[in-house]
Write a structure and sequence with these properties.
Number of helices: 7
Number of strands: 0
Largest sheet: none
Structural class: mainly alpha
Length: 104
């Protein structure tokens, strides 16, 4: 990823100004090496396959995958509905943290 403008869809609105400043100090070389997870893909996975924890596998967390499966089973599926709301935000936060780590 080399375009600072395209960064907006990966970090969310609440961190856009901070992310723009971090990307400017990061440099194009480091920014090109970063790979971000797409929050829209995570949201779609959460809606359609979240009952099976696939959205947490996309995020890269094997432990969270197991925890989500257990929570869905224990709450008879209601945790899946609550987690749909949080999934996009979790991906955006992880992308923002990755950008901050690269800028440091």
């Amino acid at each position: 990823m080399t375009d600072i403008e395209s960064l907006k869809k990966y970090v969310g609105k609440e961190h856009w100004q901070e992310a723009e400043a971090a990307a400017a100090t990061c440099g194009k070389e480091k920014l090109a090496d970063l790979t971000f997870k797409n929050p829209v893909v995570a949201l779609i996975l959460s809606i359609f396959l979240g009952m099976f924890g696939i959205d947490r596998l996309y995020q890269g967390g094997l432990k969270m995958f197991g925890c989500k499966l257990a929570m869905v089973a224990l709450t008879f599926g209601t945790w899946w509905l609550a987690d749909i709301y949080f999934n996009k935000h979790v991906i955006e936060e992880a992308n923002f943290e990755k950008l901050l780590a690269a800028a440091a």
